Amino acid sequence: MLNKTTGEFQAMLDGLKQELVIGEVTLSIARKIVIAAVEEEKRVEGEIAEVSQKIEAVRMAMLLTKPLPKEVESIRTSTMTGDRKQGQMLKEVCQHPFVFRKRNQWQRYCVVCGFEEKASYRDPTFTIPTDFKILKDTDERIIQLEPPQPWNTDSIWVPLGAVLHHFEKRVEEALDPKRDY
Q1: What are the tens digits of pLDDT across the range 30-62?
Q2: Which residue in 3, 24, 59, 112 has the most C-beta neighbors within 10 A?
Q3: pLDDT tens digits for 72-127?
Q4: How far apart, in Å, do the first and last CA atoms of the chain sit?
Q5: Whether 129 contacts 135, CB under 8 Å
Q6: Looking at the domain assignment, is residue 74 inside a domain?
Q7: Plot region of 131 (φ>0 → left; ψ -120 to 50 → alpha; else → beta)
Q8: Could you tell me if residue 57 is inside a domain?
Q9: How far is CA 143 from the centre of its chain?
Q10: Domain tally for the chain?
Q11: For residues 86 and 7, what is the distance between their CA atoms, to the nearest angstrom?
């Protein structure tokens, strides 16, 4: 049956025990490497997220520093000085670059011209409407949650700089997150 001596089995046992110790040490090292890799993965993911936020902030900064088309600026100025009849014309020529999203998530409005839009349901099983025909997400538009004291369509006739301050603050916070605002 067993063609080995007690000494041979002892040698086999000693060899297997040595293999076990080597395996356990190797496993311990591998686990440390995995833990270090997971920590590095989390660190790099954080850096990527931070850079992505800064890229978005720079894109927004570019839009904020880009002047409005002269026609929009002209109509907006004349509307602010009392010619409210041109308000509809302004809504038609405006590209709606700065949009507040109402806290209910399904209404948006342009702070340049006052154009408002309610979303429609993409799929009846969704609980939050998500489709906007005009005020949809694009690279040429900044959409953000309206401030705690929301603007209404009448208050868009304040100077644009006062309204854009909310958009600029978001850019500043993303580009310099350590600064106390």
Answers
A1: 999 999 999 999 999 999 999 999 999 999 999
A2: 112
A3: 998 888 776 666 678 889 999 999 999 999 888 789 999 999 899 998 876 666 66
A4: 83
A5: no
A6: yes
A7: beta
A8: no
A9: 11
A10: 1
A11: 104
